[in-house]
Amino acid sequence: MSPHSGHGLRLITVFGLGFMRPASGTWGSMPPVILAVVLIALGFAPGGSTTSALVYHAALALVFVIFAGACVVQGDRAEARFGHDPSEVVADEVAGQCIALVALPAAALATPTKTALTLAAAFVTFRLLDIVKPWPARQLQRVPAGWGILLDDLFAGFYAMIVVQVVTRQWIA
User: Fold this and answer.
1) Where are the beta strands (DSSP E) in the chain?
2) Which residues contact 85 (CB under 8 A, 6 or more apart)?
3) Which residue, 147, 142, 105, 119, is CA-closest to 29?
4) Is the pTM here over 0.70, yes or no?
5) pLDDT exceeds cutoff 50 at 109
């Protein structure tokens, strides 16, 4: 199946990133990190001014809603085409990665090096937790269709957010 077939599945495959090999989930986790890099480079840091933080979080929230919604709405169709929790579906990784990037401490973004380390920590931590699937993420995959595709990644994102908060506040900030 090529990335250009199934036009209705573009969002859930994140415009074809789900067809990238190896590790489609890793490819699918990159867009929110790239968005965070661009926003921070433009001066919209999560720990900055109120306006800056609002723009950063609103952008991540919008991406989260779009791709989480794609999982829920298109999950049945994707599973009918590709099988249970298919690797081609990476919108769940986009949504989960957005959570891992929320509320980063300002001190963790104080220099380009700290920013790079913080964003790399958020990316790697989310990917590891998405693969390991700590409780209850693995069990949530049994929920039917789009919710089952999505919920395990939301928990991985939430756990990654906590780890990144602790790590950045203790060692990077």
Assistant:
1) none
2) 79, 141, 148, 149
3) 119
4) yes
5) yes
